[in-house]
Amino acid sequence: MCCDDDCRPLGFLLGLPFAFLSLLVSIVGIAVWIVGLLLTCICPCCLCVTLIVELALELIKAPIHVMGWFTSKIPC
């Protein structure tokens, strides 16, 4: 029995708790992103605020990265 590369239900199920934790982190990322955007509008010359907004965007994408990593590590 051979599985195709896109179907890895075991990796998906094992990754769900970690995806939930990263979902909580992404909610924090959304809050940081909103605050960072407001600070960027107030003072657009601050480079550190731009870096914080970029970090927040990576936190928002965390659940997708975690699930992709888990499904790639677990065989069918």
Describe the structure.
With 76 residues, the protein is mainly α. The protein has helices at residues 9-42, 47-60, 62-73. It has a domain at 24-73. The protein contains 3 helices and no strands. The longest helix is centred in the middle third of the chain and has 34 residues, at 9-42. The model has no long low-confidence stretch (mean pLDDT 76).
The share of residues in extended strands comes to under 5%
Which residues form runs of ≥5 with pLDDT under 50? none
Distance between the termini: 10 Å
Please tally the helical runs, counting DSSP H or I stretches of 4 or more residues. 3
* Number of E-state strands: 0
Q: C-alpha Rg, in Å?
A: 17 Å
Largest sheet: none
Q: What's the pLDDT, averaged over the residues?
A: 76
Class from helix and strand fractions = mainly alpha
Give the helix level as a range of percent.
over 70%
SSE order: HHH
Shape: elongated
